[in-house]
Design brief:
By secondary structure, this protein is α+β, with helices and mostly antiparallel strands. It contains eleven helices and five strands. Strand 2, helix 5 and strand 3 form a beta-alpha-beta unit.
């Protein structure tokens, strides 16, 4: 076992030495010279730590580029299903599309909602897709189920407005109160909440996980993932950049 580990260690050291030699400008002929000893490599590393930093920076840049390419590919694969969701506000045929991953108990999601509504009223070519991502506990899950259950009575967005604007914990009493205000059939709503298929929410978790989204709000504009709340002015600038 020790011999195997020693062999792997030597391979790693020699591989690293070759990379470092390339970085500091050695030509190919120098690589064909007699083998470099481990002591020489250690000495080189000790005397030239800045070369290691440059190598790490270059490696990180390569990884970042590769990750970006992978993410872009995933976004392109998921784009159609996200953009064609039946849960949205704004122009159903809008060419400017923003996708928001949100949670009804998220303070930042609540804070930015009025800005999103302003943007919709100011731009008739804007469509904002609402992706339920209840990550803040059971209260968030029941809120999402209530909103989705309201869809069968044609009042998803009205319930969405009530829940996203609510201050405090969301529970069944809160939901029943809003259902009454919206003149929903409360018995039907409760029945739908209890039997609703949670597959859409589970699929949203899967999508978020694939895209590395782990908090709300998170926005997807074009191929750019933007975590956190964005002020109205920044939103406008992003839309101008992506769609003009």
């Amino acid at each position: 076992m020790e011999k195997k580990m020693s062999s792997l260690r030597n391979i790693f050291i020699k591989s690293l030495s070759i990379i470092l030699l390339i970085l500091i400008g050695y030509n190919i002929n120098s690589l064909l010279q007699p083998k470099i000893s481990n002591d020489e490599v250690y000495t080189f590393l000790e005397n030239n730590p800045e070369k290691i930093e440059k190598f790490i920076e270059k490696a990180e840049l390569i990884l970042e580029t590769n990750n970006k390419q992978i993410t872009n590919k995933l976004i392109n694969q998921l784009r159609s299903s996200l953009e064609n969701s039946e849960f949205f506000i704004g122009n159903p045929k809008g060419k400017k599309i923003v996708i928001e991953f949100f949670d009804y108990n998220c303070g930042y999601c609540k804070r930015i909602f009025s800005d999103l509504m302003d943007l919709i009223s100011e731009d008739d070519n804007l469509k904002i897709v609402l992706v339920e991502l209840p990550v803040l506990g059971d209260s968030s899950i029941i809120a999402s189920k209530a909103a989705l259950a309201s869809h069968s009575q044609g009042k998803y967005f009205l319930m969405h407005q009530k829940l996203i604007g609510h201050q405090g914990k969301i529970d069944m009493n809160v939901i029943k109160s809003y259902a009454s205000e919206l003149e929903l059939d409360i018995d039907l709503l409760i029945n739908d909440i209890n039997r609703i298929d949670t597959k859409p929410i589970e699929e949203n978790y899967i999508i978020a996980n694939k895209l590395g989204i782990n908090g709300t709000p998170t926005f997807l504009i074009g191929n750019e993932i933007i975590p956190g709340a964005i002020d109205k002015s920044s939103f406008k600038n992003l839309l101008l950049t992506k769609y003009n």
